[in-house]
Write a structure and sequence with these properties.
Radius of gyration: 14 Å
Distance between the termini: 40 Å
Order of helices and strands: EEEEEEEEEEE
Number of helices: 0
Strand content: over 45%
Largest sheet: 7 strands, mixed
Mean pLDDT: 95
Helix content: under 10%
Length: 119
């Protein structure tokens, strides 16, 4: 199994920046990708950004050009730099690990961290 510990988040005004970090532990060798999802009230969980072990990134159209995901394989961490934040970015952000264990794909989640964008 994989455990994920998130840090960062908080409240910021529109146009501001925040940085989220996530550290993975446990069965690190099974991780194929790390990333971030978010859940806003009344909405479905949405992919924000992911990065594979070989550095391939994927972004939601809603955050392209504003958010940057980066990973450190040596430290088993993933970071989400969020710039030019908008009120619609307000959500609980969850760190995610996609793992391949005994031929099966498993998903692990962090506890979530609140991001609030408001004037």
């Amino acid at each position: 199994q994989v455990q994920l510990a998130e840090s960062g988040g908080g409240s910021v005004q529109p146009g501001g920046s925040l940085r989220l970090s996530c550290a993975a532990s446990g069965s690190i060798s099974t991780i194929k990708a790390l990333g971030w999802y978010r859940l806003a009230p009344g909405k479905r969980r949405e992919l924000v950004a992911t990065i594979s072990r070989d550095g391939i990134t994927n972004y939601s159209d809603s955050v392209k050009g504003r958010f940057t995901v980066s990973g450190d394989n040596a430290k088993n961490t993933v970071t989400l730099q969020m710039n030019d934040l908008k009120p619609e970015d307000t959500a609980v952000y969850y760190c995610n690990a996609d793992c391949l264990e005994d031929g099966y794909v498993n998903f692990y989640w962090g506890q979530g961290t609140q991001v609030t964008v408001s004037s």
